[in-house]
Each structure stands twice: as structure tokens, then as C-alpha cells.
Specification:
This is Large ribosomal subunit protein bL21m. Belongs to the bacterial ribosomal protein bL21 family. It is built from five helices and twelve strands. It is of the alpha+beta class. Among the domains are: 136 residues, no CATH class; 49 residues. About 24% of the residues have low confidence.
Length: 321
């Protein structure tokens, strides 16, 4: 009984399908782009019931009879078309590939987004100390895996190398590092311009690890050597971490420009003084050389044979009348 019902349902489903000989021979092509915007959809497809969102017919075999039941579809008028997705805002232009320096102007994208990053606190950064990266925020304590030389507890260090500076919603990243070449091996890191942020760390002190004793032995030798090690580490505390505003950066740029002009004027004055000293020294050397040449000529003239013959000639004797 069950197999007969399934056979009848299959036969009814085959008969419900449209025969292949009744399908059109030519296919109608559409040149409209395949997007979700309603303006790109042709009007016949918009009016068609298959284009709008509706529940598809669900065919389920009926075990009690040979006919199949079809769930009623929702009317097209009651279904609301989904709104068109908003157009994506244009992305900011990429930053310059070259690392920023004190005289490099900030890019337009950084000038546009820096006020937003400055307004949203707190900030964090990925600082680099001796080629090691540390993600820090204000008040963090960092224990370096080495003993930093030439520092004392209480010293304030300016951390000016960072690859990431950001907040909860905004992030300023440095350009990608440069891969080394055969002539110049080694990867070159590039960092965020240190004019846009200020990070200072205070040296808290040093910590030492527990004494470690390592036993060193050799084969066929009962002697055991004990190597002792007790390393010390420097501890830092992040005392200041802020992102500067655009006005502060521009004011600093003006100060740097004025300082550069003043330094160039001082260098030009020093070069002029150096030229004057060189000219005076050169004039003195020329005068000294001229005097030496004149003395040499006078000496050679005095030692010449003509002068000795003239000196040796006797004076004429006067005859008395």
C-alpha cells in the first residue's frame, strides 16, 4: 500500500512538469548587470511574482492520498521589498610608502582621522624597544627581558618607535616593513610618525630572577661542574601615553621649520667665518712665501761670481802732480 502511494505521487509529479517540446527555442538575454539594486532589474521581472520575496511552494508527499498539497504563497502586495544597500563611503587614500620624518608633511588621511583618534580615549600602542614589540597602555608595567644599560631608577625615557597607535574604534598603523635584499640583507622596520603621539616610560628599578644552578658533566668523567646564573631585568612603567591633536602637530611643524631656518642661518654664518679664516690664512701663507722668495733672491745675488769680482777690483791710485 505504501509503495503504491509513492508510485502514484511520482507519476503525478512527472505529469505536472512542463514538457520540453513546449519550451521556447530562443532564449532572451538581458544586458543588465547582476546587482541587488532595484533600478537595475527590468520592469517585467519586477512585476513578476518570482522576483519578489515570497515563500516557495513546498511539495510534500501525502500518505493518505495520491494528490500533493501546496502551501499558499503570500500575496506580492503584502511583501515589502528589502531596501537597497547604502553606497559604501570612499576609502581614504593610502599613506605614503616612505617613512615619515621631522620634515615630511602628514598625509591628508592622517589629518582627517587624527582628530577622531585624539578625541577617543584611552589609547594603546605597540612600542618597540631593542627590536622587541610590547603592547602597552597608560599605567602598565613592563619588565624588559634584559638589563638596560646606562639608566637609573627615576629616569624618564621617550618611546618614539611604534608600529600601531589606536583606541577602541580607530587604529593608526605604520607602513609595511621593507624586505631585505642581497646587497642589504635584513628586514627594515618602519614606524609611525612620532609627531602624532607622546609616550614616556619611567624606570622603576631592576628585578633579579632566582639563582639557577646548571650541572655540566662529561662522558666517562665523574667530575660535575656547577654553573650559576642570576640575571637582572629592567622594569618600566608607562607614565604618559597621549595622541596629539592636529593643532599641536602643526604648531610643532612650524617650530621645527623655524628651528631649521635658524640652524641653517647659524650654519651659513659658521661657513662664512670659516671661509674668512681660510682666506686670511691663505693670504698670510702667500705673503710669507713672497718674503722667502725675495730673501732667497737677495742671497743668491750676493753669492753670485759677478758680485765677488766687482768686490775684488782694486781702487785706482791717485797720482800726485
Amino acid at each position: 500500500m505504501f509503495s503504491r502511494t509513492i508510485r502514484r505521487s511520482i507519476v503525478d509529479a512527472r505529469s505536472a512538469l512542463t514538457p520540453t517540446y513546449s519550451l521556447p527555442i530562443r532564449a532572451h538575454l538581458s544586458t543588465v548587470s547582476n546587482t541587488l539594486e532595484p533600478g537595475n532589474v527590468p520592469e517585467p521581472l519586477t512585476n513578476a511574482s518570482g522576483h519578489k520575496t515570497s515563500r516557495t511552494a513546498d511539495y510534500r508527499p501525502n500518505l493518505k492520498g495520491s494528490r500533493q498539497t501546496k502551501t499558499p504563497s503570500i500575496p506580492n502586495d503584502s511583501v515589502a521589498t528589502p531596501p537597497a544597500p547604502p553606497s559604501a563611503s570612499p576609502l581614504p587614500p593610502p599613506t605614503a610608502q616612505a617613512p615619515s620624518t621631522g620634515t615630511t608633511p602628514l598625509s591628508d588621511s592622517v589629518k582627517e582621522l587624527l582628530p577622531l583618534l585624539h578625541a577617543q580615549t584611552p589609547h594603546y600602542m605597540v612600542a618597540h624597544i631593542h627590536a622587541r614589540a610590547y603592547m602597552v597602555t597608560l599605567g602598565d608595567t613592563v619588565r624588559l627581558p634584559f638589563l638596560m644599560p646606562d639608566v637609573q631608577p627615576g629616569d624618564v625615557l621617550r618611546l618614539n618607535r611604534a608600529t600601531v597607535v589606536g583606541s577602541r574604534e580607530f587604529t593608526l598603523r605604520a607602513p609595511a616593513s621593507i624586505k631585505g635584499t642581497r646587497e642589504d640583507p635584513g628586514r627594515k622596520m618602519r614606524y609611525v610618525d612620532d609627531r602624532v603621539f607622546v609616550c614616556r616610560a619611567t624606570v622603576v628599578g631592576t628585578e633579579s630572577e632566582p639563582m639557577r644552578i646548571k650541572e655540566k658533566t662529561k662522558q666517562r668523567n665523574r667530575h660535575i661542574k656547577h654553573a650559576k646564573s642570576k640575571h637582572k631585568y629592567t622594569v618600566l612603567r608607562i607614565s604618559e601615553l597621549t595622541v596629539r591633536s592636529l593643532a599641536e602637530v602643526e604648531a610643532e611643524e612650524e617650530e621645527l621649520a623655524e628651528a631649521e631656518v635658524a640652524a641653517e642661518a647659524r650654519r651659513e654664518t659658521a661657513r662664512a667665518k670659516k671661509r674668512n679664516r681660510e682666506e686670511k690664512k691663505k693670504n698670510k701663507e702667500e705673503e710669507k712665501k713672497n718674503r722667502e722668495e725675495e730673501e732667497k733672491k737677495m742671497k743668491m745675488k750676493a753669492e753670485s761670481p759677478e758680485a765677488s769680482v766687482a768686490d775684488a777690483e782694486p781702487e785706482p791710485v791717485k797720482q800726485e802732480a
